Amino acid sequence: MSFDVAAVRRQFPILQRTVNGQPLHYLDNGASAQTPDAVLDAVRAYETTSRANVLRGVHALAEAATDLYENARADVARFLGAAPEEVVFTGGCTAAINLVAHSYGERLRPGDEIVLSELEHHSNIVPWYQLARRSGAALRTLPVTPDGRIDVVALPEVVNARTRIVSVAHVSNVTGAVADVAAIVAAARAVGAVVMLDGAQRAPHGPVDLPALGVDFYAFAGHKAYGPNGIGALWGRRELLESMPPFMGGGSMIGRVSLQEITWAPSPRRFEAGTPPIGPAVGLGAACRWMMALDWTAAGAHEMALAQRMMDGLADVKGARLVGPAGLQGRLPVISFTLDDVHPHDTAQILDSFGVAVRAGHHCAQPLMDKLDIAGTTRAGIAPYNDDSDVDALLAGVREAVRRFA
Fold first, then answer.
1. How far does Cα 331 stand from its chain's mean position?
2. By the 8 A CB rule, do 284 and 225 touch?
3. Among 46, 54, 123, 374, which is least packed, fewest CB within 10 Å?
C-alpha cells in the first residue's frame, strides 16, 4: 500500500518554512492542524468574490454567500454520514458541548446524573460541572485503565437509572485511546440516557460514520481538522434538536418576534444566533471535502506506521515512558510521553530548537494527570502530512533533552 506523503505535504504551504534554522517538523496536530491550499483557496474565494451576510439578503453576493454557507453544511454532513439539517455550526468543539449542556441540559433535575470519564478534556468537563451546579444533577465518572483507556468494565456500576447524559471523548487528547463506543452506547440505551461524543481528536483522521456509532450528539472543531479557527460543528439527532430550546438569542434564530411573544426557527438555525462565522464555515466545508478525497486506508496506515516508529524510538530512550496504549490497536496517533527528571516544558523547548513543534503540559486534562500522578506530558500528534523526518527529528530532540537535563 503506497501513500504519497510528498504530494500531501506540497498542499500545505506552511510546511516549507523553517524554525530556528531547522526545517519545520510540525507535530502539534492535537492542538491545531495545518491548513491545505484547498481550504485557504475556499476562504479566499468567499472573502474576495462573495463576501456578504447570509440568509436574508436578496442581492447577488448575499445569495452566493448563503449558497456557500449551506453547501459547507452539506459537506460537513456528508463527512459525518448525516443530514445537513442535523448539523449546527458553532464556534468550535467547546461551544458545541456548551450548547448541548445548556440547551438539552435544561431538562435535568436534582437527582439526575451526568456521566463523564477521568480522561476528558476540560471542555468536556466544565460545561457539565456548570450544568450540575445549575440543575442539582450529580457528576459521575468512568475510571481509566492504567494504559489510558476508558474502563468500560465500570459501566454497570456508573451508568444507572438516574443517568441522563453520557459524554466522553471519542479519542483521548492525551493517550490517543479510542473509546469503546458500542459498550458505552449499549449501557446508556439500557437506562434511557443520551450519548455525546467529543470528536475533536477523531475527526482529523477521516470521515466519521455516525449511523454506525449510534450516538445522539457529536462535536468536532475545525482548527484540528485542517480547517480555520473559530468554527466547529455539532451534530444532533433531528428529534432531539427540534425538542431543545435555543442556547443564545438574537437575529436569524427566530420565527417571529413581537414584544409579547417570540417563536423560534427550526434547527439548525435555532442554534445559530446572529451573523454566523461564514468564512470559517466555508473553510470547514472545504476541509471536509479535502479529507473525504483522501484515501484513508493508506493515510491511516501511514499515520500509524509513523506512530509505531515514534513509540519504538522512545522505547530506546532511557527514562522515556509512554502515557497511553503501548500498541497500535484501539488508538490513534496521539502520543504522550514523559522523561525521567525532565519537565515536559523543557523537553518541548529543546524540541523547538530542533524545529519540532509539540505540546507540553496537562493538555487541559488535569483530572487525568491527577489520576496518573504526573504533572504533565509531552505530546506529539501525527497527521497525514507528517513523514519519517518529523519523527526522527523528535527522537533526536528527545535524546538531547535527556542528555542535558536527566
1. 15
2. yes
3. 374
pLDDT digits (tens, 9 = 90+) for 355-385: 999 999 999 999 999 999 999 999 999 999 9
Instruction: Report the SS3 class of residue 246.
Output: coil
Give the whole-angstrom CA distance, residue 78 versus residue 83. Answer: 7
Q: Is 93 a catalytic residue?
A: no
Q: How confident is the model at residue 406 (pLDDT cuts 50, 70, 90)?
A: confident
Question: Cell digits for 15?
Answer: 510546511
- Contact between 171 and 208 under an 8 Å Cβ cutoff? The reply is no
Has this prediction a pTM greater than 0.85? yes
End-to-end Cα, the chain, rounded Å? 40
Q: Which three cell numbers stand for residue 240?
A: 432531539
Residue 353's H or E segment, with its range, is helix 344-353
d(CA 165, CA 108): 9
> How far apart, in whole angstroms, are the C-alpha atoms of residue 59 and residue 325?
55
Asked whether 116 and 297 are in contact (CB, 8 A), the reply is no
Spot the catalytic one: 186, 273, 364, 374.
364
